[in-house]
Amino acid sequence: MIRIPPAALIGLFFTGLYFFVAIFAPLIAPYSMTEIVGDVWEPSSSEHWLGTDNIGRDLLTRMIYGGRTTIFIATAATILSFSLGSILGFTAAVVGGWVDQAMSRFVDLIMSIPTLIFALVVLSVMPVTLFMLIMVMGLLDSTRVYRLARAVAVDINVMDFVEAAKLRGEGRRWIIFREILPNALSPLVAEMGLRFIFAVLFVSTLSFLGLGVQPPNADWGGIVKENKDGIVYGIPAALVPAVAIATLAISVNLVADWVLNRTTSLKGGRG
Asked: Which helix (H) or strand (E) covers residue 181, if one does?
């Protein structure tokens, strides 16, 4: 039986709760996302648990739908970045030579440009859709995953079980997916949690700057932007999504730390 430490249980509970709410948002939300149900910035009540926002929409409903959008974009961008970055990183390490040099120098070039500035430039000339947000975030973040995957794969590629597989005549695909990938999961899983949180913060930042999720759709960064003026008057509507982002970040990191501790030993490849 797997023993899960209390910190990991807390992380699993809140992470699972956020994903559950995101998946079943239309069934859980008390109102529609754009429905005006009261006055501007009403306080919390039995009818509106978190009050209303800057134009009278139910804030709890906006938070539920906003969480759905934020988590969906962050999850899709993280999957894209890890799929692309890890495969290219492993390939560069296994092939080596000019292929490795060309790919690594191109990644260095992309990483030399601040990620937020790069995204703002691209999104300012491209249509801002969910697909475009996912592509831009995933491609930019894949450079970080590439560097990690390549560094780990270079070390694994010279181990005895990989050399034995090469002597057996196994192809590069076998080496990458059957020898290197299983032994590189530990650092990649830990990094995936961090990259997911980075994606949540990134899409929230883009929305706050006006180049992320576009109204009337909701995401947590957009909710902060919509209600930021209320902070001057002591209205906490803009702080609610900030608390949600912080809670999600801590929860995912607790889970990632637990998974890292369970997979920290380097496993020998199958010969």
From this structure: helix 181-208
pLDDT tens for residues 135-179? 999 999 999 999 999 999 998 888 888 888 888 888 888 888 888
For the stretch 43-72, pLDDT in tens is 998 898 999 998 999 999 999 999 999 999
Residues in the chain: 271
Rounded (5°) CA angle 94-96-97: 160
CA nearest neighbour of 223 among 32, 37, 30, 53: 53
Cβ-Cβ contacts under 8 Å for 235 (sequence gap 6 or more): 41, 51, 227
Q: Is the dihedral of CA 236, 239, 240, 241 positive or negative?
A: positive
176 contacts 94 by C-beta, under 8 angstroms: yes
By C-alpha distance, which of 11, 22, 163 is closest to 94?
163
Alpha-carbon torsion (43, 46, 49, 55), positive or negative: negative
C-alpha span between 125 and 123 (Å, rounded)? 5
